[in-house]
Design brief:
Elements: H1 2-35, H2 39-45, H3 49-63, H4 65-70, H5 72-92, H6 96-111, H7 119-138, H8 146-160, H9 174-194, H10 197-211, H11 215-218, H12 221-247, H13 265-276, H14 301-309, H15 311-326, H16 336-351, H17 364-390
Length: about 400
Amino acid sequence: MMLRKKIEITQNAMILKDKIDFAIIFILIIIFSLTWINISLFNLLSRFNLIIILAALICIYLNHINEISLGKFDFWVLFIAIPILLVNKIINQSNIGSFLVIITLFLILLTSRYIKIKEQMIVNISWYIFFYSLIWNMIPHRGFNANTIGLVSLFLIINSSFILEKNDKTYKTYAIYLFFLFLTFRSVVTIIESDSRGALWSLVFFFVIRFLIPKKILAKKSVFNIVLFVLTFGSLIFVYVYIFLWRNNINIHLPFTNKSLFTGREAIWYETIHLFDYSRIVGLGSNFMLDSFNEINLHNSVFNLLIIYGIPIFILFMYYLFSTITRVRKNVSTNKITFTSFAGLCAILLNGYFETTLLFVNNLPIIFLLFVFLSSYNNVITNRQSRELQI
């Protein structure tokens, strides 16, 4: 009798944890939705979003503190990173924002591994994002940066695509595919009008992985690791290739865009690389000055992580990123949600070749959501096995 009562208390505690997680996810989705309605709300909420998102993730972290502490190495990696970041901040005089952003990213990767969210809930969230995306693509985007418009469209179409994943035959109708096709068309129009070539290529890349590449091939360890390596460390190689083309006056005409291949980022990368030679351990921080541009924007997510935060933090972050994604590799071939999430993250990492996509604060809620979806199947299975052992 006491054993049954103990099991019941444990299960109720798990249910409560799940409800707290979803309440926080709901808040983050609303924040993201409000931020992108118009430029006035964007300017207002941008002042507070980082603190709100960080506070939300800390709440999720505390909600799962017992489970997280069981994975000792992952638990301690975060606490190794924090003092290193503090020392780096003092030495390179970074602003508090860049310090909090990287902590937020670490928490996104860590906490997403423990959130258990069922397939039906993912589909429901995706339907909300679908309708929000329809509206967002219809309204004017006055005041927003062109590349930002393309990036938001990319995030929305990726997170809307989970409406296609429900196994129930009532959902698998031509109507849903037609709805999604219409949204895709409208999103592509928005991206082309914004002339955001990075978002356009990333969207094409997402559809290629999602609809053309067989799951079993992608889930093979060698293929999976190569894809992940190319989309992360390949981004650094891309920077050097880009600089080489620029320095040797090799220009390439790009289809579907009126932009030149060289738009200024090559000069930023070239100058930054030379500055980084003198500050490889602690990084350059977020307040260093450039001769090529007044405003610091490194236009590359992985390059930004390395240059701003230094090699030790870069290694710790890459460990978190790789371990979070590779732990679900086998599920890519067996679970549609995991497969679509991985395809979406691949598109976002590719977009990171051209923009600091992973570090854009106002899009962190939707990035977090994608990592939650990625781990959801694995987490639900693990939770089910845990309950069966208790019984």
